[in-house]
Every structure is written in structure tokens, then in C-alpha cells.
Amino acid sequence: MTRSRKTTITALSALSAATLALTGCAGGGGGGSDDNVLRIAMGSPGEAQIRVWDQVAEQFEAAHEGMTVEMNYQDDDLYQTIGLPNLLNGRNAPDIYFEWAGSRLEQRVSDGFAADLTDAVETEPIAGLFDEDVFTSVTVDGTVAMVPHAADVTNVLWYNKQILADAGVTPPTTWDELLAACDTLDAQGIIPIASGNKDLWAAGNWLAHLASRVVGEDAYAQALSGETGFSSPEWEKALGYVKELADHNCVNESANAVDDNEGAQLFFQGKAAMHAIGSWLVSWAIDEAPDLDFDYVNLPAMPGAGDQDSVIGVVTGYVVNAKSSKQDAAAEFLALLNNDENVQAFIAAELTPMALSASGGEIDSRSADLINMLETAPAIVLPPDTGYDLERANALYTALAEVMGGQSSPADALAGIDQKLG
Amino acid sequence: MKANRAVTPYLFLGPALLVFGFAVVLPVAMTAVYSLTDWNGYGSMTFVGLDNYVKALGDSLFRDSFAHVIAYIAATLVLEVVIGLCLAGLVSARRRGSLWFRVAIFTPVMLPMVVVAILWAFVYNADFGLLNAALEAAGLQNLQKVWLGDPSTALLAISVTSGWVYAGFYMTIFYAAFNQIPSEVVEAARLDGAGEWQIFRRIKVPMIRSAVTVAVLLCVTGGFQGFDLFYVMTNGGPYGATEIPTTYLVKSVFTFGNVGYGSAMAVLLTAVVVVVGLILARFNRQRPEGARS
């Protein structure tokens, strides 16, 4: 081997090694290089809750001399897609990160990014802060993988009390009542139900819940888990009801062109009588439309095989990174987050934590009713995008959007799902 | 002494080569490697050979995304290059006020594309937007549409936005090229009785063929790389009508965690762009400046 060739190989080796180091391809970060910094990542929870997080961080720093807490708030959609995987792979990976229970959490466990928190919740420091039952949905392969923080009902039908009263419409509790309400409101030039479905999940959650009521919870879960396909008479019947929504002009014509924020604005500004979205609307509406008099009904009962009192919802919480060198400190932070004082602070910021002490707080009556509805639900349906594989969820959402927009027939839309998923 | 002279050029080239290696060669090479694997971005990597390429070539959504981007490029060739050329012709023919006109037309180029996308999404918004409000004010309610929610208008709406931004960019290129044409040529044509349109069509445009070819090359390759407007304004919708290769592969990689498959699509897209670029460059070499079309 000549000297020049040796030099070239050495240079290439150095180049490759440096590149691997620079691009962080060494297999995921381990909580960063600075052992005195506790890094926490999440989608932005809004200004009011950020103030609470900052307080908790200050309390933690005061109790742990020399340690600092670094918060990383990202745009929600960004966090759910690109943001979190990038952070977990980066050099300063979070020690604690927000996650949804279900398929996503299972994926984190299988990829080695979720620490086993069983001891922390059974003994110290988190023991006693929660009812034991809440850990069921965050247990993966027999181990607790996440400390739950809140439970969201991801879809109900919000309504503007004044508009419905003026139109002589009562909040719909059955499918026929819903279609009749759409006809009445549409005839009066009012958008019956606002939706901002550009990103597919907003109406996707709502209509997936509707479909689960028709096909039954088991068939719904089997199709979304990949155990069965979507092309079946039951699913076609379910999407037939979605077509009825389109036929009765129930949803704003712009639904598939505007995002969830723009959809909500139609409701906030009184252009739409109803809005199908999740429990987070309460704090949002109080902020943006303080004069709006609104309430909710669960999805109206459908003619179908499912439980007609089912609730679509998901538990969210915080995972400790299994690659973090500060797992004990992270568990202590999560205990602090869920103590009485901080739980009450979150309630004041319009979030209702799942910790036991939340029951004594002053919660908005609608939020309290939603929590009660979720806790007493005879069946809980997991949202497709957080409970199941995202690619299958997206295929279903696309089909639902196509039918809702009058672009495809139920049969064609369902065939499209199976074609897309191979 | 001779040895030093031989090494010197490499010493000067070294820093640039190093940056080029890190910023271009290595990412391309790593993307090519990832394209041969089944990988979600952080778990274990499994070698799958050419499976991802076979899947991509058989994926109707990926094929459709190329049809969409070709339609977009065709529209932008008109809305950006042709209109840019016409604007440059107008500006170069009329000296009075041309500076202000050029500045006004060029201003959108300086705006970040995400800002442009948000601005135009508001213009097109069916419920609150300026376009439908203007149509209503003009008594043209029957022309109102859900511009970004209708598959028949969404792609065109994005193309118009792109044209609004880049027509000024191409105008600037063509205006500079027009200024390089010897004034005697234009004066001689005027003395022979040629009008401004004839001068523009028969003399000016043929004499700036290289600039036109560069503009077409930029527009075509830039079109294949388009992303921001599509991602912000429609996110590939409605019903996939504005899904282009870049948005599709980004969703594949970052939303669904199919890094291997997305990388294969990226390699295929890069290959198409390189081939199209080479064809256009070769076409330019074969036709000398001023040749009749």
C-alpha cells in the first residue's frame, strides 16, 4: 500500500467518524452531556400552563442545588411528527418527554426510549399520588412506561347555546336529531358543524368515533391494528353515515381546506352552531371567545353495533427517557409536578391532572363533566392517530375526509385504504 | 519546490472540498445507504436491498405526486418565466418609473416562503379570505370557491402564489440580460420601422437565449424542489391533489417514520432532477445564442 493511499484511507476514516459524530448517528442521545441539566420536551401547552411548568422547574431547582431544568416547548403538530424523534436522536435528548398512551408509547418502549417506572410509582417518589387504576393504560409489557398527567376526551360535539336556541334546535342526542338540526341550521344560512380538517385528524377523530359506534369497538380496533381490512359491509355502512353528513350540508364546505384553528374560529365567531373537537376547547374558548355561551353533548347515538355511550379519549403523560443518566431526578420531578400545590396550579390553568388531589380543585363545570364522562364511560375508544399505527390512522382519516367532502363514495374510499396499506 | 507547487492548489481547495463533502456528498451518500434499509430513524436498521425502490415505483401516490409537480412546473413556467420575461420587456421598453416598478415586482422575492404561504392561505380562505370577499363585493358570488379545498383549483392556487413571488425574480434576470444587448442593434431595428413588440419578440428575446435557458432550468429544478408553499397551504390536500414528491417523502420519513422508504423516494427524485437538468443544459449547448426558435 502506498503512502498516499494510506493517507487517503486515514483521511476518509477521520471524515466518516467526524460525520457520524456531527450528525448524531450514534444511536440516540442519552439525556445530554451536561449532567446538571434536566431536559423536558413537549408540545406547547399554552401560556397559562407554561407558567405552571416554570414554577415547578423553579421548585425543583431550589430543592436540587446545582441542577437546572431546561424546558423545550414545540408546536404540537411538529412535536408529534418531526420534533420528538429528532430530539430523542439528538445529542441533548430530553430526560422527560410528553407522550400519548397507546401505540406511540409502545413504540417508545420497543425502541428503548421509555424507562421502567414501576418502582417509582409503587414505592418512591410517585407512590400515593395516583389511583392505581390510572396506570393500566400506561403499562406496556407489564411495566409502567409513563406517568399519566391528563386524560383528554378527544371529541365531543360543542354547541353555541344561543344559536341553537334561536334556531329552535335542541342539542342532538341521536343521529336523526343531528341530521334534522343540520337541515334546520343550513336552511337558516348557519354552518351546522364547523371543522378544520386540513391536517385530517380533527374530523378524523370525530368520524372515527362515529365509525366505531357503527362497526363496534372490537371491529374498529381490529381494523386499526391491522388484524382485519377495512373493506367490509359494516365499515361501508359506517362511512355511509359520513356521506349523509355531506348530503345534509352538516359541515362547512371549507372543512378540508382549513386547519383546526380556523375551524374553531368559525365556532368562536358565531358563524357555526356546533364544533366537533376535543376537551381542550374549554380553555381555548375561554381565552379567545370569553363571551361565548357553549356546552357539549357526546357524539349522538348511532344505529350500530357499538356501545352508543362510548367516549373517544386518550391518556397523556410524561415518559422518562431510558437513556437518561438522570432517571432518579426525572422521577422526582414528576412527583413534584403531581403534588397538591402544582395540581391546583394546573387546574387554575384550565388543565385537570389525573392525580388524586385534583378532585378537590375548582374545575370548570364542563371540564369536570368531561372527566366524569370519561371515567364512567362504558367503553373508551382510542383515537386512531395516537392509539394505533399512524400510517393506518392516516389512511382511515384520508378516506373519511374524502367521503365527508363528497369526493369518494364509501366503497371507493374503503378500497383506497386497503390499496394504500397494501 | 516543484512538490510544493503541486500541493498548493489542493491546500486552497481543501476547505471548500471539506465543506462540500460534509454538506453535500456525505448527506447524499447516507441517504442512498438509508434507502436500502428498513429504518424508523432511531431503532434498529434492517438491510432490505432494493425493496424500497420497487415499492416506490409501484406506489400510485408517488407516481401521482410526480404528475402534480409536473403540472405545477408547467404552470410556473408560464406564471414565473413567461410573465417575468414580459415584465422585463415592459420595464426595459419604458424607462420612466421603471425602478419603482422593478422594486415593487421584486419585493415578494424577499419575503420568507412560509410568510408568503400563510398570507396567501388567508387570501384564499373560503370563509374569511380576501379573494372570496372581493368577489362578493363585485357581485360575483357565483365565482366564489373553496380555493384550497377543491382539487380542481388547489394546485393552480399554489402555482399563482409561486408566480406572485418568482415573476419578479425572473424579471430581474431578464432585465439584466436585456441591458447587455448592444443599443445599436435595437436602434437599427427602430430605424427600420420595427415596433416595440417586434423588437421584443424578434430581437431581444432571441438575443438573451442563455438567460432564458438558465431561467427555465432554475424554474424546472426549483419546481421539483418545491415544498414550503405546499406544506403550509394544503399539506398535500385536498384528497392528495397537491401532494408532490417532496411533501410525500417528508410525510413518509417524519410522520410515519419510514426513513428507508422516504430516502429511496429522495434518491429517485434527485435522479430525476439531475437528468432533467442535464437534458436542459445539453439543449442549451446545442443552440447558439440568437438562434431562431
Structural description of this entry:
The complex is a heterodimer of chains A (422) and B (293). Chain A has 422 residues and is an alpha/beta fold. Chain A has 18 helices and twelve strands. Chain A has helices at residues 3-23, 47-63, 76-89, 103-110, 118-122, 161-167, 175-187, 201-215, 217-225, 233-247, 260-268, 281-288, 327-337, 340-348, 365-375, 384-387, 390-404, 410-421, and strands spanning 37-43, 68-74, 96-100, 139-140, 143-144, 147-153, 156-160, 191-194, 272-277, 294-297, 311-320, 380-381. Chain B is 72% helix and 1% strand. Chain B has a two-stranded antiparallel sheet. In chain B, strand 1 and strand 2 form a beta hairpin. In chain B, helix 1 crosses helix 13, helix 2 (51-57) packs across helix 13 (259-286) and helix 10 runs antiparallel to helix 13. The mean pLDDT of chain B is 90.
Give a brief description:
By secondary structure, chain A is an alpha/beta fold.
Supply the helix-strand structural class of chain B. mainly alpha
The overall pLDDT average of chain A reads 87
Biggest interface in this structure? A-B, 40 and 33 residues
CATH class of chain B: Mainly Alpha
| Rg of chain B (C-alpha, Å) | 23 Å
List low-confidence stretches of chain A: 1-28
Report the total helices of chain A.
18
> Could you tell me how far the N terminus lies from the C terminus of chain A, measured between alpha carbons in angstroms?
51 Å
Residue stretches of chain B low in confidence (pLDDT < 50, at least 5 long) are none
Instruction: Give me the secondary-structure category of chain A.
Output: alpha/beta
Q: How would you spell out the order of helices and strands of chain B?
A: HEEHHHHHHHHHHHH
Q: Given the structure, what is the number of helices of chain B?
A: 13
